[in-house]
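Listing S7. Sequence submitted for prediction.
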Amino acid sequence: QVQLVESGGGLVQAGGSLRLSCAASGRTFSGYTMGWFRQAPEKEREFVASILWNGYKTAYADSVKGRFTISRDNAKNMLYLQMNTLKPEDTAVYYCAAVTGTGVVLTPRLYDYWGHGTQVTVSS
């Protein structure tokens, strides 16, 4: 079992920045591919970013590429999402997730463990 807890969400003006964190506990953190997803009201949960267990490979949704950066610190059991140049359309609940695997994973239904989410609101 893996437990995930997100933090760092909040209200920010368009063009601003936030850094989300995800603290993992339970099984060995370094053995999992990790991902960030988001879900806006009345929208399906969508992929944001994913990172390989060793951090050597990452993937991003086209909508956030160049603005968001996913990273991890396995020694601290932490996952991060640095979000820059935020836009109102980035407003959503952001979730971290974990899955065993050998590559980045972009499909939500393939992830085994999820946090409860943290709200990010970007005002215009």
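Caption to Listing S7: primary sequence and predicted structure tokens for the chain studied. The chain has a mean pLDDT of 94. The longest strand covers residues 18-26.
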